[in-house]
Structure formats: structure tokens, C-alpha cells
């Protein structure tokens, strides 16, 4: 079992083995930043489409965002909107465990209810979708420009 440190708190992470992930699955890495002073969020995502062998990236800024959790949910929704007409098989990776747990459990916090219902609706047209927590350090190691993109000063 691997261990990840969040802040100063170690968290045990069980490696996940999925033998049924389609080979032609599009992999989406998404993340967000949030500024409490301005209630703005920077959203970023990368889509690796194995079927077409393309890698696309996206970014957006959102205003009046209430929390970091909402910013993460908005980034995930924007990434799904980007791929809704592409691959029918999607693997979404986020570094926010609370968000992934809410989506997978179908128990939506009131704060996120509308955005998570949008995500659920966008997901319903896909043949395969997997929501997975992915360590942001690994994500930034693989794509260092994403960190600069979403954490740029406004």
C-alpha cells in the first residue's frame, strides 16, 4: 500500500487495479486553483485520447466560486464538456478525493448539487466512465505546464 502526504498528514492509498478499462479510453487529468480574496478559480484539464492519439488541453477562469471544492467540480465539468463528442470511453482523474467520493457515491453535497448533476448528465451518454483520485504531484510531474497554467496570477 502506498502512502501520500497531504499537508502534514500521511494518507494510505490503495493501488487500484482495473482490468476492464477499455484500451481506447480517453484519459482526462483536471485540476483547479482558487483565490479566496477574489472568489475566482483557474480551471485546467488535459485530454489524452488514445483512440485518435491526440492530446488536447484546456483552461478557463470562473468568477464567484464559493470554495476550492466547487472549483475542482467546475474543472471536471468543463473537461467533460470538452470530450462529450469524442471518445465514448473516459477515465477522469482529479486530485480531489472529496469530489471523487461524492461523484462515485452519488451522494452530492448541497454546495455541489447542480454541478454534480451536470457531470452525471454528461456522463450518461458515455459507454464507459471512471472517476479516480490521482495524486497532483504525479499529474504535475507528467505535465508541468498545467501547474503554471492554473496557478498563474490574475
Automatic annotation (TrEMBL):
Protein name in the entry: RNase H type-1 domain-containing protein
UniProt signal peptide: none
Domain of life: Eukaryota
Organism (species): Brassica carinata
Pfam families: RVT_3 (PF13456)
GO MF annotations in UniProt: nucleic acid binding; RNA-DNA hybrid ribonuclease activity
Boundaries of every RNase H type-1 domain copy: 29-132
Alphabetical list of InterPro entries matching this protein: RNase_H-like_dom_plant (IPR044730), RNase_H-like_EbsB-rel (IPR052929), RNaseH-like_sf (IPR012337), RNaseH_domain (IPR002156), RNaseH_sf (IPR036397)
Amino acid at each position: 500500500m502506498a502512502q501520500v502526504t497531504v499537508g502534514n498528514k500521511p494518507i494510505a492509498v490503495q493501488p487500484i487495479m482495473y482490468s476492464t478499462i477499455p484500451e481506447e479510453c480517453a484519459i482526462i487529468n483536471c485540476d483547479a486553483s482558487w483565490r479566496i480574496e477574489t472568489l475566482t478559480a483557474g480551471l485546467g484539464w488535459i485530454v489524452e485520447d488514445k483512440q485518435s492519439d491526440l492530446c488536447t488541453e484546456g483552461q478557463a477562469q470562473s468568477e464567484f466560486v464559493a470554495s476550492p471544492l466547487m472549483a475542482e467540480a467546475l474543472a471536471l465539468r468543463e473537461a467533460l464538456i470538452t470530450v462529450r463528442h469524442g471518445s465514448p470511453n473516459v477515465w477522469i482523474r482529479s486530485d480531489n478525493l472529496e469530489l471523487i467520493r461524492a461523484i462515485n457515491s452519488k451522494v452530492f453535497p448541497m454546495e455541489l448539487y447542480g454541478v454534480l448533476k451536470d457531470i452525471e448528465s454528461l456522463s450518461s451518454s458515455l459507454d464507459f466512465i471512471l472517476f479516480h483520485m490521482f495524486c497532483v504531484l504525479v499529474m504535475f510531474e507528467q505535465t508541468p505546464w498545467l501547474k503554471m497554467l492554473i496557478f498563474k496570477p490574475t
